[in-house]
Structure formats: C-alpha cells, structure tokens
Amino acid sequence: VRPFDVLVASHGPVAASLLAAAEMICGSASRAAAVSLEPDDSPESFGERLTSVLDPQRPTLILTDLNGGTPHNVACALARRGAAIRCIAGVNLGLVIEAITSDEELDDALVERLVTAAREAVVDASPSVAAHR
Amino acid sequence: VRPFDVLVASHGPVAASLLAAAEMICGSASRAAAVSLEPDDSPESFGERLTSVLDPQRPTLILTDLNGGTPHNVACALARRGAAIRCIAGVNLGLVIEAITSDEELDDALVERLVTAAREAVVDASPSVAAHR
Question: Is the per-residue pLDDT at B128 higher than 90?
Fold first, then answer.
C-alpha cells in the first residue's frame, strides 16, 4: 500500500487525462486525484480546490504540468505551508505510473528516484538514432 | 513558421489535453494535432488514424506518452516507413510547448535539444529541497 497520496495538478484536463491513462495501464489507483486549472479559475479558486482534496493527515506528492505555471505555483505555495507535501514539475505518463505504483515512504530518496525516472522516460526513439546504435 | 508538423499521440485524451494546455499558454498552434488510442482501438485502427493526420509532404515530429506503449510503438512503426518522421517518447507539457513554438529544421540537433528541454522540465520543487540550496 502506498504510504502517501498522489495529486496531479495541471492546466485544464492534462492531469485527469494522465491519471486515467495511468489507470488504463496499471489498473485503478486509490488515493490519487487530479485537479484542473480552468480558464475562469483564479489562483485562489484553484488553490481552494487543491486544498479541498489534500488530506492533511497524509504525506502528499503533487505532480504539476509546468514549472512556473499557475498550478505549479499554487501547489508550491501549499507545500511551503504543509509539512509533508512534495512537488515535482514536468509530469509525464511515466512519472504518474511510477508514483501511483510506489509503495515507499515519500522522502528525499524517493523524490529523487521519481525525478530520474521521469527524465529517463523522455527518449528519442527516431529510426535514424536507433540506426546509429 | 515551423518547418515541420507536430503530432501528439497517447493513451486516451492525454495528447489532446497537452496540446490544448500548450495552446492555452502559447496561443493557437497551426499544423499540430493530437491522436488518442481509445479503449476499443486496435493497433491497426490507431495506426490508420495516425496515418490519416500525417502529411507525407512534411517532416513530422511525433511526441508519444510512453516508451513501449501502443501509441509509441505504432508511431515508431510509421517512422520506420516514413523518411522524415521523428519520435520522442515521454511527452510533457514543456516538450509540447517547445515543439510547437520551434521554428527550426527537424534534424538531429533539434531533437536532441527538445529531449534535453523535456528532461530539464522535470524539477523537484519541494520546499525541503529549495531550503537546501
């Protein structure tokens, strides 16, 4: 059982789509949710929605779509107030899969492994590159 | 003007969501499209849909959600048959933004820069890490 919650936060439905795709591949995930910034949201209204799905009793990993974007900035502001919130920007499907299937404690080592996994999931698979190998 | 087309290919609506989010941030993009693998798709039906949006007269960059997933495998199979198709797996929002706003030729150097940009977009922004800097 994963000892932390996973939230994916994004511009529009990126977060919900990534979580649904990860569940299409890995099966249904408990204690994982998606929060979308809609065009008529303010940072405040988005922050209220993000707060409403945060369980203050649980360590929480927030995966955001873009460093410097509103979903990320709001998540980081919450993380500065909450003791056990970690944020990783630049989420891709590989990162969501690694996060929801983890069963480790949400500590520095896990965050570092997840960042590495997300980066290594970015692969140039062009035929010309493969031919050079 | 970008001298190549951009296709985003994914499980379900990840691709369309990422493209819509990138356009929410950067403005509308021409010659960019999203193709989704639906639960009732076969690799063949998905490949037909991907082929139908490919313009064989144009170099095309296909961004896929997951190395080894069906959207990626089908895109790579098309790339092996098409001269001017490049594939990068592990798409995140930063990569879509970099790709649709590029105005360079789709060559090895650009693909390498885009891979680097996508990896560098994955950032641990947790407060405890920031405090250590």
Answer: no
ipTM: 0.94
> What length is written for chain A?
133
Tokens (6 digits) for A33: 């949710």
| pLDDT number for residue A1 | 87
Using DSSP's 3-state secondary structure scheme, residue B61 falls into strand
Q: Please give the residue of chain A at the shortest CA–CA distance from B113.
A: A124
Report the residue count for chain B.
133
Of B95, B111, B123, the CB nearest to A126: B111
Distance between terminal CA atoms of chain B? Answer: 40
pTM above 0.90, yes or no: yes
- The kind and range of the H/E element at A12 are none
Residue B72 has φ and ψ, to the nearest 5°, of -70, -45
Contacts of B126 (CB under 8 A, 6+ apart): A79, A85, A86, A87, A88, A111
- Which of B24, B123, B126 lies nearest to residue A67, judging by beta carbons? B123
d(CA A37, CA A45): 9
